[in-house]
Amino acid sequence: MLNELNRRNIGIFAHVDAGKTTTTEHMLFQSGVVRTPGRVDDGTTATDSLDIEKERGISVQAAMTSLIWKDTIIDLIDTPGHIDFSSEVERSLRVMDGAVLILSAVEGVQSQSETIWHALRSLGIPTLIYINKMDRVGASAETVIDQVRSSLSPFVCEIQSFRMNEEVFEGIDSLWNESQKQVKGPPSSIPGLFELLAELDEDLMEAYINGETLPADLLDEAFRKLVHQGEVFPICYGASGKGIGVTELLDAIIEFLPAPAQPQEPSVSGVVFKIERDKTMGRTAYVRMYGGSVHNRDTIYNSTRKLEEKVTQIRRMDGRKWADTGAVHAGQIAALYGLSETHVGDIIGSPEGVPPVPQMAVPLLTVQVHGKDTARYPDLVAALQELTDEDPLLDLQWLPEERELHLKVMGTIQLEILSSLLMSRFGLDVVFDPPSVIYKETPRSSGEGFIAYTMPKPCWAILRFSIEPLPRGSGLIYSSTVRTDLLLLRYQNEVERRIPEALSQGFLGWEVTDLRITLIEGEHHVWHTHPLDFVVATPMGIMDGLASTGTTLLEPILNFRLTVPEEYGGKALSDLVHMRATFEAPIIGGGRCIVEGRMPLASSMDYPVKLRSETSGRGVLTTSFAGYEDCPSDQTHTRKRRGVNPLDQSKYILSVRNAITS
């Protein structure tokens, strides 16, 4: 009997072309949601709804669908596999109770697989591994499992075996309960199960050392507990294109991945993980609830933005359609309407129980957008603002005076998608300048910045900052040691709010990062000080400090895995050296040469095209963001500064004060 509490919220994750959308289609088919499974090549899949998705055969947006399997409601989110759309994956990760990571039995573990895996592990999300495409030429489950154990986790357990007739994949058999139909728990035939669990459980380790034989139900309980804790990972097999292994995968999802945790408190708690604009319904906010309930016409509190909004309608997924439900409860995902001021990542109600945001999507390129029809410039601004509302990482920079529009993007595929979206959705024909790398700056040494903003009256803001460089990846750490009787708390809060803005442009025009800023001196005046004085003073004090420390240019670095036919290995290694890459000794075998290492983005942007040309399309390069590192001293990359430089204090004060009084 169907029970609303008996549900699973599952994310489907994979590297590009691992068969993620095909697997989702066959899940819908096997559960009776669709009469025939859609095909990616034909553009008939349920979760790829955009025209560009159907044309290109790739997933661009995270798409939600729902099915019922063995009296259990399964809400599935099919996420994009291409690295250019990692922001969609990142937002989906936050709202999942369990995950299925799909790997191709041919390509194995890719860099994007590792990136997703680390994000899943950082959030402790229970994960089931599904090795797909077992029917393809070159498939090797043994090789993939070795990669999984070395690159992802040694604590994996095959809960299925597969049948091969010579080199033809025929099907799978379940190991769990297969040999003991009437006995709860795993059979003893699963090799190494006791040893695997004992490594993670002290009581089991003691029993193992003492040579005890444990009952199956005890092993079963320990296995499920460790899977739910995200410490042990079941492995399944299949060939989704032929529908083999999909029903067993659905069984495993219900059997081993957890239901949503029941909240301890009845208070409303949820997070907005996606914003869309429906043609008929308007602005749609997708919310995962962690506590309480929300009903139609409820006024809900957005604790992120400190505002209240009224919900006008609530819809939830029912198969492939959204249906009006009038309410959403803890553990459920729903589409809420009427939330015009709510943005992606905002927390509804209490933040208790809402998981943190994983950091895996980092835009490394910036690009300027031009509309072909200059008369429609205002429409282009509005369209890009709407798209940035849906994907905040686009980070639209609109410079009205220069009539310039700049976006941050993950890669060139994303530009194609944006161009298609702007045309199909808004009727806007655009061109993009060639994308350029986003560099950053960091202080070269420690120093202090000082500003006494006391003229022209009325104004009074005195600030002194200590600035220290930090290790790469530290970001910004800010604190204050100033007593509140010398500088009121509300003024100190204003300073803290303005620090990120002050660091958005360093000497070379790039964001300044990896530093500690401490406010060590501050003073206000009882009569002359206005809160906006600190809006003016903070950037001047920060830039004065950076003038004393100097800055070092940082460039983005990528982890890479390059696979080429063996005969191209020498040329590939030569290319890597010219791109300033650092790498381990190549692995050669089976006619392939595999190289792993790190390379600068700036020197490798054009390499994928060159690689395809050199290897006749047989070379494969996968990359993921590794972090920022010091740029070689002989390279300088500047970006045009927006607005007046705060180092030119007189001009800057006049500029900002004019803006304030306008």
UniProtKB/TrEMBL annotation:
Ranges in coiled-coil conformation: none
Domain of life: Bacteria
Database matches in CDD domains: Tet_C (cd03711)
Domain Tr-type G: 5-261
Spans through the membrane: none
Organism encoding this protein: Paenibacillus pabuli
Record keywords: Antibiotic resistance, Elongation factor, GTP-binding, Nucleotide-binding, Protein biosynthesis
Protein name as annotated: Translation elongation factor 2 (EF-2/EF-G)
Entry annotated with the keyword Protein biosynthesis: yes
MF terms (GO), sorted A to Z: translation elongation factor activity
Record SMART domains: EFG_C (SM00838), EFG_IV (SM00889)
Function: Abolishes the inhibitory effect of tetracyclin on protein synthesis by a non-covalent modification of the ribosomes.
